[in-house]
Structures are given as structure tokens and as C-alpha cells.
Amino acid sequence: MLMQRKNNLANDIGVIITSIFVAVLLVRTGTIENLVAQTNGLLFLQSFVAGLFFTSIFTTAPAIVALGSIVQGSSAIWPVAIWGALGALVGDLIIYRFSRDTLTSDIKALVSVHARKRLSHIFQLRLFRWFFALLGGLIIASPLPDELGLFLMGVTRVSKVTFVVVSYIFNFIGIVVIAMLALHI
Length: 185
What we know:
Keywords: Membrane, Transmembrane, Transmembrane helix
Order of helices and strands: HHHHHHHHH
Number of strands: 0
Shape: globular
Structural class: mainly alpha
Helix content: over 70%
Transmembrane segments: 12-30, 42-70, 76-98, 127-145, 165-183
Radius of gyration: 18 Å
């Protein structure tokens, strides 16, 4: 069992290293900006693609630049936020689906049994579940990596409906803030 946890942790580290490499490659080659530019002014598609990349720690910065450029070129805050948040929701669902169980189990393997029981009891309280869901949402809305917010929601095992609603609303808020800043720069 411990060997499997070590393998999972090694796999997670490998994925992170690969993601960093891919993100650097995407930034240096301008792939995200080119992908957005290839949509020939289809605002909803540009916003959705930029939103999709808004979710990961490794692609957040170029996505913020892309979202700001889209808003500056169109002055359409609300459509960009609506479609961008939808793209970000899809990105969050992908990350959540593939990382929730393995990341949670890896963290549990690192924490002692006694501490884990205490934390498990705390996370089962309804108040803390909502608190961590909202805290996760605030992290999703910020430029901080969504993975941290998704982790908080995954640890408390929020329902998928709650996850979708929180992710969409807070991604929407985050993109609106980016859009407003982009128009005032």
C-alpha cells in the first residue's frame, strides 16, 4: 500500500514537471495567443479557449493575458466572462476528475492516522464543508492556481452540483475583474 502511494506521488510529480515543461513551451511559442487569434473574431470561442487555460497553475498567466486582449479588442466584458467562465469550468472539471482522488489519497498518506481522523471529523461538519467550498471558490476566482481551490473542495467531498456552481460563479467573478482591469490599463 505504501509503495503504491509512493508511485502515485511520483506520478503526480512527473505530471507536474511535464505540465511545467508544456506551459513554458506554450508561453514561449505563443501557442495560446495564436489559438485565440485563429478563431477569427469568434468572441465566444476565443473566450471559451482562454477560459479553459485560465484554470491551471501552468497556463493561468497566458490565459489572463489572452482574456485581457480579448476584452480590449471587443470591449465586451459580459460575453467574455460568460464564455470564459464556461471554459474555465470545463478545465476545472477535467482537473478535478483526474486529480481529486489521487491527490487526496497522497495527502492522506503523508498525514498521520491520528491527525487524519481528527481532520476527517472536522471536514464532515457541514459548516466546514461550506467554508472550504467557498474558500476554494475564492481561490478559483483569484489568479492563484485553481488546483488549490479544487483540492479544498475535493477534501470536503462537495457534491458535483455544488462544485459546478461554485466553480462557474467564481471563475466568472475572476474573469470580470480581469476584464475590468484590462479596460482600465
